[in-house]
Design a protein that fits this description.
The complex is a heterodimer. Chain A is mainly beta. Helix content of chain A is about 0%, strand content about 60%. Chain A starts with a strand and ends with a strand. The N and C termini of chain B lie far apart (about 35 Å). The mean pLDDT of chain B is about 95. The interface between A and B is medium-sized, with 25 and 27 residues.
Chain lengths: ~110, ~110
């Protein structure tokens, strides 16, 4: 079963625009991760945010976490065509940090 | 440093045939995962190994799926017999298992059952 759900399911933007995708989850967590998956490839870890953090940055990525709403957002600023991929949030199930459960994903298309 | 290696990259079989997937994790990674990803969905955990021990196989359909991780390094996932609904991408991932929760994924095996 999927723990998280991303919103929107698909997003199309032009290069240079910002892309925001959201993740909602069901149970209490101690951390949340975001991964990227290019077409036909495996997933690549982007960023991890812990439950005591509200915001985290990594290059053009900004992640927020609201544990009261059980939601997270991933913002990609100044998007590039190379950012075209699917993005997944992932949370540990049942407090087991090694049991990572993935959401349904947001498919991002960035047009040059 | 080599990443997680999976083979084959693609596999096409007829239903009721057996199939096997192989994974070589990153050297030194104690934890190994097998995920299944259906088209348009996120990966779903099938089994997790800590060294050679399967510590979570609750999502593995044991009537037809089996897995092993001999000597706590390479792993093999087998389906026998395969069904049409098994068509998916099978992903292997590994992590250090030392509290660093980040997973490293292989490129996956895309299985088509005809």
């Amino acid at each position: 079963s999927q723990q998280g759900e991303e919103d929107p399911q698909a997003l199309s933007i032009q290069e240079g625009e910002n892309a925001t995708m959201n993740c909602s989850y069901k149970t209490s967590i101690n951390n949340l991760q975001w991964y990227r998956q290019n077409s036909g490839r495996g997933l690549v870890h982007l960023i991890l945010i812990r439950s005591n953090e509200r915001e985290k940055h990594s290059g053009r990525l900004r992640v927020t976490l609201d544990t009261s709403k059980k939601s997270s957002s991933l913002l990609i600023t100044a998007s590039r065509a190379a950012d075209t991929a699917s993005y997944f949030c992932a949370t540990p199930r049942g407090g087991d940090t090694d049991k990572l459960i993935f959401g349904t994903g947001t498919r991002l298309q960035v047009f040059p | 440093e080599a990443g997680v290696v999976q083979s084959p990259r693609y596999k096409i079989i007829e239903k009721k045939q057996p199939v096997a997937f192989w994974c070589n994790p990153i050297s030194g990674h104690n934890t190994l995962y097998w995920y299944r990803q259906n088209l348009g969905q996120g990966p779903e955990l099938l089994i997790r190994y800590e060294n050679e021990e399967a510590v979570d196989d609750s999502q593995l359909p044991k009537d037809r799926f089996s897995a092993e991780r001999l000597k706590g390094v390479d792993s093999t996932l087998k389906i026998q017999p395969a069904e049409l609904g098994d068509s998916a991408v099978y992903l292997c991932a590994s992590s250090t298992g030392t509290g660093d929760e980040k997973l490293f994924f292989g490129s996956g095996t895309q299985l088509s059952v005809l």
